[in-house]
Amino acid sequence: IGWIALVDESSGVSCSDCWIITVVLAVGGWFFTAWRQRVLQRKQIAVELLNRNRFQSAWVEGQAAVFNKLNTEPNFDWASLAERHLGNGTLTDEELKSYHHLRIVLNFLEFIAIAVLNRAADENIIRWALQSQYQRLDSGVKKFIIKVREKAHSEEIYINLTTLAEKWRKKPSYARPTA
User: Fold this and answer.
1) What is the pLDDT at residue 119?
2) N or C terminus of the chain: which is more exposed, having fewer CB within 10 Å?
3) pLDDT(100) > 60
4) Are 157 and 148 in contact (CB under 8 A)?
């Protein structure tokens, strides 16, 4: 408001024009501040989502087991696990453990994908942290996901996870190197 005093009558700007400009700037500033707060809140939520589950033993154990199996046994038949488990077949203790580890990982990543796709969490932070995991799981266990959907008669199972993985696959990563 102090700049109003600098406007003299020779500038051609009336005092009422100054008040209108001041109100417009104040409202615009309020909207910018609200928008900026929302952006910061989304970034904070993203970091909290990552940290909250990163250190829980089920997530850590499941993640390690699933990615170890994906790396050491790339042709492992995840779909048969789903077929036998959901079709009331029998699984060995080791197979049942693998099945549960995979469901823990997929469920967590589905939860994160819901937050990202609904703009509750910052997509860039989640992407930098988890993009390779989404794409690796989407390609490595696609048949498992398809079989779970068939058995449940629902195409909606893990739809957010697969949607986000596909979205990230289509556009290049913007990951920044750390210093």
Assistant:
1) 84
2) C
3) yes
4) yes
